[in-house]
Amino acid sequence: MASENDKLSLAGSVSLGTGVMIGAGIFALVGQVSELAGSLMPLAFLAGAVIAAFSAYSYIRYSATNPTSGGIAMLLKAAYGPGVVAGTFSLFMYVSMVVAQSLLGRTFGTYALRPFGLEDSALLVPALAVAVIAVAALVNLVGVGFVEGSATISAGFKILGISALAIAGIVAAGPAALGDVLTTDRGAGGGQADGVLGFLAGTTLCILAYKGFTTITNQGAELREPKKNLGRSITISIALCTVVYVLLTVAVAGSLSVDEIIEARDYALAAAAEPLFGSWGVGLTIALAVVATFSGLLASIYAVTRLYDMLRDMGQAPSLPSAVRHQSLVITAGSAIVLAAFLDLSQIASMGAILYLSMDIAIHWGVIRHLRSDIQATPVIPAIAIGLDVAVLGAFVIIKAQTDLLTLAVAMGIAGAVFASQVVITHRAEHEEQAA
User: How far apart, in Å, do the first and last CA atoms of the chain sit?
Assistant: First the structure.
C-alpha cells in the first residue's frame, strides 16, 4: 500500500481531472456543437456544466463513502449486484472513456497539422493520432509521480493560456460581443436542427467536455483523505472548466459566424484566433491544443487503466495471456488506437455521448433505487439528473437518426456487443460456481 506522502494531493487530483476535461472537448467540439445549437453554442456549454453538476452529486456521495480505485464500477456493483447490469454499464463507462482518448488523439493530429495546411488529411490525421496515443501509453509506464507532475504543470498552462486567449478574444471583438452572442439568432448554419431540439442535442456533446470529472472517482485508493478531497476535487474541476469553456466559446462566437465555425469545425479555435490576433494567435492556439490533448491523454490513460484493472478483478472484463505485461494499458491504448484510426471526430464524439449518458442514467437510478440510504443521498438531485440526461440524449438520438444513422447504428452495435458479452460472462461464472 502506498504511503500517504506517495498518494495524490488535492491539487494533483484536480490537475488530473482538468487534464482529462480540458482537452479534445473544447478544441474539437465547438464546431460540432455550433452545427446543432447554432448561435446558442456558448449557452449549450453552460447548460452542459449545469447537467454535469447535477450528475456529479451521485458520484460524490458514493465515492466519498466508498473511495476505491474503481469508483464507478464499484458503485454499479453496489447498486445492482454483480452481474449483467453492473457489468454492462461499467463497460459502457470504460468504452466511452476509451472513445474520449481517440477523440483526444484525433484532435491532437488535426491541430498539429494545421500549420502545414494538412488538418483535413485523411491519412496523416489518424496516423498522428495513433502515434500520440502510443507515446502517451509509454509515458504512463513511468508511474504516478511523473503523470501527476506533468498534469499539474500542463493544467496550469492550459487554464491560464486558454483563459488569457478567451479574455483577449472578447476584448478584441468588442464590449458588445457578449451581448451579441447571447441575443443574436444567426441560425444553425449547417442546418441539422433548429430551436430547442438543436440546443438540447448540442448540449449532449458539450457534456463530453465535462465528463472527465468521473475519472476522479477512480482515484479513491490513491488520493490523500479521499472522503474529504474527492468531492472537493470534482467540484473544483467542474467549476474551473465551466469558466474556461464559457469564456472561450463566447470569444469564438464573437469572432466567427456560425457558418464559419462549422466550416472549420475540427479546428474552430484556431480559425477564430486568426482574424483577431493573426498568425501569433493561431500559433498560441495550436500550442495550447497540442499540450491540452497530449496531457489529457496522459491523465485519461492513467485513470482508465485503473478502471479496467478493477473490472478485470471483478470478472467483468477479459484478460490477455499472462505473459503480456501491463495488460490494462495495452488493451486501453490499443482500443483507442483502433478507434482513432478508423473513425472521424464527429463519429467518435457521438458514440461517446450516447454510451456515457446511458451509463450516467443507470448510475442515478441505482442511487435512487438501491443506495440512497447507504450513502445518505437526497433522491431529488439524482432524479433531476436523470430527467436532464433523458432530455438531451433523446434530442440527440432523434437528430442522429435523421442525419447520421450509421453512427447511431454503430453505437447501438457496440452497446449490444457489450451486453451480450456480459450475459456470456455471467452465465459462465454461474456455471463454474455450480460445478464447484
Answer: 33
